[in-house]
Amino acid sequence: MIIPKEVKNIIDKLKKEGFEAFIVGGCVRDFLIGKEPEDWDIATNAKPEEIQKVFPNSFYENNFLTVTVLTKTKNLKLQEIEITTYRLEAKYSDKRHPDEVKFAKTIKDDLSRRDFTINALALGIKGAKKEIIDPFFGQKDLKNKIIKTVGNPEERFSEDALRMMRAVRFATTLGFQIEENTAKAIKKNSIWLKAISQERIRDEFLKIIMADNAANGVELLRELGLLKYIVPELEEGYGVGQNKHHIYDCYWHSIKALEYSAKKKLNMQVRLASLLHDVAKPRVKAGDGKDSTFYNHEVVGAKMTFEILNRLKFSKKDVEKVTKLVRYHLFYYNVDEVGESSVRRLMRNVGKDSMEELLQVRHADRIGSGVPKAEPYKLRHLKYIIDKVSQDPLSVKMLKVSGNDVINVLKIEPGPRVGQILDVLLGYVLDDPKKNEKEILEEEIEELGKLEDKKLKSLAEKSKEDKVEIENKTDQMTKKKYWVK
């Protein structure tokens, strides 16, 4: 791994002015494990006003002693680099924010306030040499793949309760284990997550959902007593058995569906829908054993999903998309039973652009059942129908002229000749799309207007036959695309 020149330049300038400067935090952790950091942070003993004197092209708009330097580089990740004065944080009365931020004297003092040992690392640069400052043995925990707090875990979590979710997020994204005492402290203090804003909870939850190991991350939230303060509705399904079509209970079915969508690297909306698609089953369940039923769970589930995502302050766009995917995930389709009109209706309800995502959720649902039936032909046939009904129909509406244009050009009354001329023009355009210009077509209208009724009718019928042939060829190509008959 190479330290970017933009970062080196900032450190060099601070040192030239007589200040200390270190790369700190998560970027050091990522650097040490060979992962490209998302951003680079620097800590220094220079005060904010002193930092701004060194870097006039900067801004300071917070209470945490952090100055943001604008580097003018083309690299988006390095256009803004944060420099923070060594600091200590006093008591956290609200479990979210420090009551007071104080200047610290040394880099080791600054590192002592951080959450986990693997984040309490600093990287110093001395010419071509690099020096790691590691007062809490973070490198050892990196090597052993351990998530462990700096100092007493209960104190760290009482300072900022969101750190409990961060522990799960790091364990999930890095594939690490949470150290025993740290895990115990999370279980003991999980209720304090209620003090955290829904926006901050949402952001951490999404980072877990978007990890490759998302399913294990959600399960770890449940094991540590955190899930009930994030999506308690999901935990309602734990231990709630299903029918003969499933081998997992409601909760584990949802986890397995998420696992599949994460494995396929599907987008955030599909992952959320996969996790929540059966969230209502515990509330609508009737009967027990292999013949139990869950009537209307997709409708109730859509309402619950809407409430969950709004509670977590998701964007309106995400709320609407995920809610629709949950509402219509149970669509019925059999090759010989469901026609094009039903597929069109489904597309209107879900949205043409969301059909592929709906199929992804449906597949995640089937894989998550534990007893998925192989239905490659049915799925391919449905995709073929979706593609077919999505194509613009070949009709005179495609033309840059209308029946009124024919009437105006030829100075005739409405009648069969108008339609016949439009049919012939469509044939011309299908043969050569470049002819679909109003001036060109109006010239053709004048020529066609000179033809006898019999000749015009013959040309119109020939054009209709050609249109049908083109439609058939297009349909055959679409069928071939999906390997259906």
**CATH fold category name of the largest domain:** Beta Polymerase, domain 2
**Major sheet: arrangement of strands:** 3-4-5-2-1-8-9
CATH superfamily of the largest domain: Beta Polymerase, domain 2
Number of domains: 3
Specify the helix fraction band. 40-55%
List the total number of helices. 23
Number of strands: 11
Q: What class would the helix/strand composition place it in?
A: alpha+beta
N-to-C CA distance: 53 Å
CATH class of the largest domain, anyone?
Answer: Alpha Beta
**What is the residue-mean pLDDT, rounded to a whole number?**
89
Taken as a percent bin, the fraction of beta residues is 5-15%
Q: Major sheet: size, sense and barrel closure?
A: 7 strands, mixed
Rg, nearest Å: 32 Å
- Which blocks of ≥5 consecutive residues have pLDDT under 50? none
Could you say which overall geometry the principal axes of the C-alpha atoms support? flat
What is the architecture of the largest domain at the second tier of CATH? Answer: 2-Layer Sandwich
